[in-house]
Amino acid sequence: MSKKIIVFVLTIVLTVAGSFYLKSRTVSTTFEEQYQNIKKVSFTMTFFNFGPFRANEFDIYQDIENIEELEQKSQVIARVHLVKRQQKYGTFYSTVKVLESFKGDLKSKEIVIYEPIEIQMEDLMISGAQKPMDDKQDYIVFLQTAIPEDNQHFNLINSCLGVIPAKSELHVKKVEDYKDYQDLDMIKLNDLDKYDFFDITFDLSSHSDIEEVPINHQVYDQTKQLLFDHYSQILEKYAHMKGKVVFES
User: Among residues 234, 85, 68, 117, which one has the least CA distance to residue 166?
Assistant: First the structure.
């Protein structure tokens, strides 16, 4: 075999190997690098997840009026722990380990949950009512099947009640007069580690021309209250522990 052919073959091998290496690095590290470089946190259009006039992109979620309805509407109820995550299809693609299954016939020990959150540039944009899951504690999740319908990919049944931290104390940060898309500095980055949930009251003045918005916000408020009122009950039933809600201004 001539030297030219050998060099040509080696070039192809090295190029392909480099391509696979870069691809693997992109999948495994780029998201975490982006997450570590987040500068601002924003809850955007959260109240449009709720009510009879919810935005079309959030029509996968269901309104819940009581805990019995939460359990009935959920196709899967489980205790899970975050394994890894990345961003796909403009949303967090979170792989979790199933520790205990209470409802639903799960075939795998690991499933994927789509969280309504995405990173845009250096901003963490949260479209739901819950902050991202982390690996510091387990979660009780209430889920419905998602695409692909393979019994491994799931959406939250409700963006407020779909994922609940299994902690003895749920630390809640109250945020008043929040202007979505504008108050990117109102919630600090270290608040994500300090608090488990953000009880946000939105300033609706910029939406005054949309008469349905107050109705959506009212359902959002009612759903948050369900979480606060029944947090301990949910933990006792599914996490075998007691819990309480601690509010902080």
Answer: 234
Q: Which domain holds residue 138?
A: 40-248
Residue ranges, the chain, pLDDT below 50: 3-29
pLDDT at 179: 81
CATH code: domain of residue 157: 2.40.50.120
Domain count, the chain: 2
Q: What is the pLDDT of residues 80-110, one digit of tens each?
A: 999 999 999 889 999 999 999 999 999 899 9
CA 37 to chain centre: 18
Longest Cα–Cα distance of the chain, Å, equals: 78
